[in-house]
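Hi support team,

I'm filing this because I wasn't sure whether my run with zinc ion finished correctly. The job status page said complete, but I'd like someone to confirm that the output block is well-formed before I use it downstream. Pasting the exact inputs I used:
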Amino acid sequence: MINLLRTCKDMHRLVAESMDRKLGPVQRIQMRLHLSFCDACTHFKEQMDWLRAAVRRFDDH
Ligand SMILES: [Zn+2]
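And here is everything the job wrote out:
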């Protein structure tokens, strides 16, 4: 049985991992489920997404 409700620590690692490579389908579901009830990780992911977008813009030049 896959544990779908991961801890915030797991989520932070997954979010960081998703910056480097594509997550598998199970990991994406775990992340979506966790983010649906966890404001802290939602905020963390938003920051990471923003950071990634900023780094990409920087890389273009
Ligand atoms: Zn969380």
